[in-house]
Amino acid sequence: LICNSRQTLDDTQRHMERFGRMPPAIVAHLGVDIPAFKVVASPEIPQPYVITIGTIEPRKNHAFLLDLWEEWPTGNDAPPPPHLVICGNRGGRNEAVFTRLDAVKAKGLPITELNGLRDDQMMGLLKGAKAALFPSLAEGFGLPQVEALSLGVPIICGDLAIYREVLGDFPVYAETSNAYVWRAEIEKMLQKDSDE
Questions:
Q1: Which strand ranges, in their side-by-side order, compose the sheet holding 132-134?
Q2: Residue 172 in contact with residue 145, Cβ under 8 Å?
Q3: Would you say 166 and 146 are in contact if contact means Cβ atoms under 8 Å apart?
Q4: Does the predicted TM-score (pTM) go above 0.90?
Q5: CA 62/CA 177 separation, integer angstroms
Q6: Which pLDDT score, from 0 to 100, does residue 37 have?
Q7: Which candidate, 83, 90, 169, 79, places its Cα nearest to that of 133?
Q8: Which residue ranges of the chain lie beneath pLDDT 70?
């Protein structure tokens, strides 16, 4: 077997033990090809924006990001949240999140959902983002995260073993139980960009 991560190999071994035998296996991390693309400018996506990429399904934890944006502090001195771009097709068993996404415009939240994008469109949007956010609860590898790093886009992600294995010390790791830390890190990335 060729597994895309140590995490995947360990999970495979755990499942195969029920059958009595684990075939020989190695780990080979995935690589990324950077296609020719241009940064996609869209009047519907105001600057600055942050992005998340992945099928909209429970394990990707889009509910956390929706909570974060809905509860973002507003007031005289509080900076507004950046625009959040959610790129990915809708998966299964996530009706509560779909309902919340359908209500985004009515609530006036700075969130755009984009489905069915080509790879070059996705990469263009990723390249133009101030940060990429990945609050996933489980991953097998994390290809969008590797793509973000390859384009120099800063990442904030949940503290999963697979991310530590594949991404090392490059991302900011933050527990998804702590919305304050996520907001603070996003604001730092936006401030850093405006200072340069």
A1: 111-114, 83-87, 49-53, 132-134, 155-157, 172-173
A2: no
A3: yes
A4: yes
A5: 13
A6: 64
A7: 83
A8: 35-43, 193-196
